[in-house]
Amino acid sequence: MKTLALLSALLLIFLSSTTIADVGNVLQKTYCSSTDAFTANSTYNLNLQTLFTNLITSATNSSSNFGFAKSNFGSIPNEIFGLVLCRGDANSSFCSFCLSQATQQIQNLCPYSKEATIYYEVCLLRFSNENFLITTDNSPQYIKLNSQNVTGSQTLFDSYVTYLMNTTVDYAAFNSSNKFASAQLNLSNEGFPETYGVVQCTPDMSSSDCAHCLKFLIQEMRMYFSVKIGGRILGVRCNMRFEQNMFYSGVSLLSLTPPADNAAAPAAPALPVPGVLDVGKKKSSTGTILAITISLVLAFVVIAGVSVCLLKKRKSRITKPLLNVSNPEEIKSVESLLFDFYVLRVATIDFAEENKLGEGGFGAVYKGVLPDGREIAVKRLSPSSDQGLDELKNELILVAKLQHKNLVRLLGVCLEGQEKLLVYEYVPNKSLDQILFDTEMRHLLDWRKRFNIISGIARGLLYLHEESQIRIIHRDLKASNVLLDAEMNPKISDFGLARLFGGNQSQAITSRVAGTRGYMAPEYVMQGHFSVKSDVFSYGVLVLEIITGKEKSFFVNDEIKVLQSFVWENWTNGTITEVADPSLGQQYPMSELLRCIHIALLCVQENPADRPTMSNVVVMLSSETVSTLEIPSRPAFCIANESIRVGLGNIGGNTDKSSSKSVPMSSNEVSNTDIEPR
What we know:
By secondary structure, the protein is an alpha+beta fold. It is 35% helix and 18% strand.
């Protein structure tokens, strides 16, 4: 008996090792670089052999990140970067065997390539002469689907697979130290075979990066694997697979049953909350299901009938549609910009708090990454937002038609159910106010950068006022609505309050005064008159902020000062050079500084007719002298208070109450969402 037991044990070991070898030998895909090559006896080749040895040793001997290693070896121009990863269910011998096969085969299949990637069933290897280790780029990706289609309701099965993979992703990203998870979903009560899934990231990725990577794969899975019983997507940084057979070793980390709300077979179930799993048992019978189904159908019919009646009664009060269906040009321009809500949900990791860039009166802005790698900023308007369909349509139609390097670019829009989202290009630096008014960061803006920002904003406004297809007045130009790109070039953003003019129209009157205190022109605040000269006034205030490093209103010895008043006093007293931001350290051309101050004072004059146009401003900025500039008159002085008050012609800011008007504003001084890229 003992002999029989020993033979049985040896047989099991043999069969187990055979299975490991067979699986480890299943080559999935190889990618070879065709541009760079090395020679057989080169230093690069010697470094590559050393790198392979180091990677395998590190991956199979590490206790913390077993099965994973990344490293580099050599020096420029023969430095090589490499990464290996074994699937989380592989043991040490299995992993070592697979990686050894990978190092041999990659040299046979990609001879002398300086960059190559190879995927096996349970391991991968990538090396390159470029440092790809500093990124979370998942390319090159390999996609393989099971050729067999689903038997039964394809939509229902797809929804179950989405639930399975989303739940597994959340566990791997947020609850697994090695960023690996396996799960099985019991679908016997739903008429489908049990389905298994595996997801994995490289363990060095953060939880949010891992979730980003994997949920992009799920998005791709929904595109490529719909109606299929299985499929896989292999990438350098993350991978996933699902099948109707258990294709991994050991027991499943998660044992799931369909969520209760999945009984109605939603096409795309909500993303599960990280770490919250439904592991209960679902019991149903044919009679119960039939009774529930009949009840639901009857309820639906009743609700539909009531809804039709209510809609007829409310027809005259329904908000007009976002798109003007009678305008084919408008429909065409919008349809080309539509984003799927699920794509944006995945891109922002379900609008995670850690991805929030800022929040204003109309909602929050989130950073996201699209499946093609593009970074985006998503403005998600809150249901209670003051920015209704009119403003959303306004911003969409306006910005979609604007193409200028000093204007933030709108990539698209999403309108699904109650969701209203605008998708912009992501601008890597913060908004101007976050740097300019930060005592520790303002030194990043030397005079050259500040002058470039002043000039860039002027060119952007000139485009809006005179050079675009139609005249546009921004109405909310301020430091927080100027974003800075990687080179600190300015981009004007937030067009929700912008107004569009046709023909030769250049001014209008509104009963709804909206904007930000301190930046609004007096004629706009007092009488609702706005024009291109209203934007010129805001530009003047903004230029003074850029030069002085002070906000539009500030405290000095517990006394509030208005920026225009402060600069004007120094102008008339002959001490104008004292207004320059001390962080500039007097490292600026005096003539250029004086010219910018002079232009700003011309822009904030009380009478709109006295203010220059933006075309004049651009010309004046490029001039070499101030001698040809007109002499500015005293500016309109604004007193920052709980409400906006504009005193006309009172030096020192003493407001004449008989000539002032209060305009309610939000407590945070913001009427539009602030996109604040980090």
